[in-house]
């Protein structure tokens, strides 16, 4: 099996210096979704490795540095989706066409900025709580689950934004293999123990509710709403694990 779709996923989801020898075909773009959970696992592993040399620092400084690296390595890609979705959801006033139009606007409004501040603040506080008691598992699970639920949403929900890379991915995703890959990663998360099981349960409930809200407002999902789900999923996993270890 060609690893080119993995390189496509790495280039799209991270700031790692991945150079593609050519543009991906539509089929390769679709198959890159198979690798999203693996990329999330790799991001989590990076965070776990980074935490070790930071152990001598205060929990708040550790959390700040870990979160800064987290945002940097992911390129802030999903934070952008969160801001766009928040602006559109508030400004759309329940109208689907207006919501989609605002979401396409590259400018970030005050509600979008507020959502970024709140999500990053909650992530920082949860990370500080976790590193204070040396609970590194959240660093692994949060980005892993965030990039596990994203292809699950795209697989199960109609894509309503015509054109662009997102539509190409959805139309060409391997619908036979994707559920198998997601199941495999889900079983691997269960191997982590009770924390992994509870994290999966929380994200499945969140994903189900998220999908219902999107269908009610938009009739489906977009790249921005999928990216926003990644951020909220990461936030929820960290808060849930911090609550369990308090």
From TrEMBL:
GO cellular component, one term: plasma membrane
Reactions performed catalytically: alpha-ribazole 5'-phosphate + adenosylcob(III)inamide-GDP = adenosylcob(III)alamin 5'-phosphate + GMP + H(+); alpha-ribazole + adenosylcob(III)inamide-GDP = adenosylcob(III)alamin + GMP + H(+)
Regions crossing the membrane: 32-50, 62-79, 113-132, 139-156, 176-209
Gene Ontology biological process terms in this record: cobalamin biosynthetic process
Topology versus the membrane: Multi-pass membrane protein
Main enzyme class: transferase
Pathway the protein contributes to: Cofactor biosynthesis; adenosylcobalamin biosynthesis; adenosylcobalamin from cob(II)yrinate a,c-diamide: step 7/7
Keyword Transmembrane helix: yes
Chief place of localization: membrane
EC number(s) recorded for this UniProt protein: 2.7.8.26
Keywords: Cell membrane, Cobalamin biosynthesis, Magnesium, Membrane, Transferase, Transmembrane, Transmembrane helix
PANTHER family in alphabetical order: ADENOSYLCOBINAMIDE-GDP RIBAZOLETRANSFERASE
Family membership: Belongs to the CobS family.
Function description: Joins adenosylcobinamide-GDP and alpha-ribazole to generate adenosylcobalamin (Ado-cobalamin). Also synthesizes adenosylcobalamin 5'-phosphate from adenosylcobinamide-GDP and alpha-ribazole 5'-phosphate.
Protein name per Swiss-Prot or TrEMBL: Adenosylcobinamide-GDP ribazoletransferase
Species this protein is from: marine sediment metagenome
